[in-house]
Design a protein that fits this description.
heterodimer, A: 213 residues, mainly alpha, MetI-like fold, 85% helix, elongated, B: 211 residues, 0% strand
């Protein structure tokens, strides 16, 4: 009886709030932000991996940017980017580039002296060392950075609901405004479940990459 | 630029919200991480819980609090506290656990009890990761204290959301700039604190889990 009524209110919310469409919106913003952040983050990590001084200054700056509250950044971009999914994706990328770049940098620079000596003895060029030695060895750390970025991005995309970006933050806001507990519980649990599942998948990928070495 | 007349009150409210949630989180996290140190079951539960909950978006946490506790200042403090708890517990536990084994052996060798070792050896050596965790939690708390304005906490978030609802740039700036200032202050003050309490025998980079 209780299960039936729970299922009933779940389906009611799912349809009334068009949670399927909202989920698709949510995940497309999420995917766009993650692809951009990964490309930029890895590129930045690779670009600075031979310049210790530059990388330190850059990472210190990004560290400071990371402390800015998400909503403050979202609303400050508003005059430039307007409302909607664009500022949401840009904000996600700003927060997510740091963990990916920092981990890529750490991975590329922590390759053991033996590996590098062997590569040199084989006569590999600097570029070949990067592609065939440093990068493969850095992969588990890169994956770890992407996993952290995943959690950040999920959080920012959910907040996008507050600046008319749609996604699953929108029904959460509706639920709070209407003081409708069913909407809040169903959407809240669904967002939480999605986040935990994505994090677990990323954790599994990270683990497998680490094992392979 | 028009400064909203209630800016000072809102800033004070924001600070009270942030720091009271942080203080409660620290008070709960430390005993829990000590418990985790002495019981493998507790350690498993604490770490699994922390890892799982940390992945959940803050907005979902803030919203889910409403059906259970309603809206207002207290539910907001609890929502922020839940979020700030996790990084502190995780860093405290890992810091206390991963103390150099030779230090523990020497302490045992000179006859210190288990509690004395925890108090005088493990705890001081766990300060760097512990304070890193608190810094992260404080920055998180400052960020979520804006969000909780939608569940009626008041504070700077209220000004931001008012500005957002009628696209009033002055209000948006007046609400958000102080939160950035507070974030920078938290970052700088906890970094100083972290450096001040780091024992000279411990290297500052050791064990610090950055998330």
């Amino acid at each position: 009886m209780i299960i039936m009524s729970a299922l009933d209110s779940f389906l009611g919310v799912w349809e009334a709030q068009r949670l399927m469409d909202r989920t698709i919106e949510h995940l497309s913003m999420f995917a766009a932000a993650m692809v951009l952040a990964t490309i930029i983050g890895v590129a930045v990590g690779v670009a600075v991996h031979r310049h210790a001084r530059v990388s330190q200054v850059l990472f210190n700056m990004l560290n400071v940017a990371e402390t800015i509250p998400t909503i403050a950044l979202l609303v400050l971009l508003l005059p430039v980017l307007g409302l909607g999914s664009r500022p949401t994706i840009v904000t996600s990328v700003i927060y997510s580039v740091l963990p990916i770049a920092r981990n890529t940098y750490a991975g590329l620079t922590s390759v053991s002296a033996e590996h590098l000596a062997v590569a040199e003895a084989l006569g590999l060029s600097r570029r070949e060392v990067l592609v065939h030695v440093r990068f493969p060895l850095a992969l588990p750390l890169v994956a770890g950075g992407i996993r952290i970025a995943l959690v950040f991005t999920m959080g920012v995309v959910t907040l996008g609901g507050l600046i008319a970006a749609g996604g699953l933050g929108a029904p959460l806001q509706t639920g709070i405004q209407l003081y409708d507990m069913d909407i809040i519980i169903v959407t809240g649990l669904w967002v939480g479940l999605l986040a935990v599942v994505f994090d677990a998948l990323a954790g599994y990928a990270e683990h497998r990459l680490g094992e392979r070495l | 630029m028009n400064i909203p007349p209630n800016l000072l009150d809102a800033t004070v409210q924001h600070l009270v919200l942030t720091y009271s949630a942080l203080a409660i989180a620290i008070a709960i996290a430390l005993p829990l991480s000590l418990a985790a140190l002495y019981s493998r079951r507790a350690a498993m539960a604490v770490m699994t819980g922390a890892n799982l909950l940390q992945a959940i978006p803050s907005f979902a946490v803030v919203a889910i609090v409403v059906p259970f506790l309603g809206i207002g200042f207290v539910p907001a403090v609890i929502a922020i506290m839940i979020r700030a708890l996790l990084p502190i517990i995780k860093n405290a536990y890992l810091g206390l656990r991963d103390v150099d084994a030779s230090l523990i052996d020497s302490a045992k060798g000179i006859g210190l009890t288990e509690w004395q070792i925890t108090r005088h050896i493990r705890l001081p050596h766990a300060y760097p990761p512990l304070f890193a965790g608190m810094k992260f939690a404080a920055i998180l708390a400052n960020s979520i204290a804006i969000l909780t304005a939608i569940i009626g906490s008041g504070g700077l978030g209220s000004i931001i959301f008012q500005g957002l609802s009628n696209l009033n740039t002055d209000k948006i700036l007046a609400g958000s700039l102080p939160t950035i200032g507070i974030a920078l202050f938290i970052d700088a003050s906890f970094s100083l604190l972290e450096r001040a309490v780091t024992p000279r025998t411990a290297s500052p980079e050791r064990n610090i889990k950055k998330r």
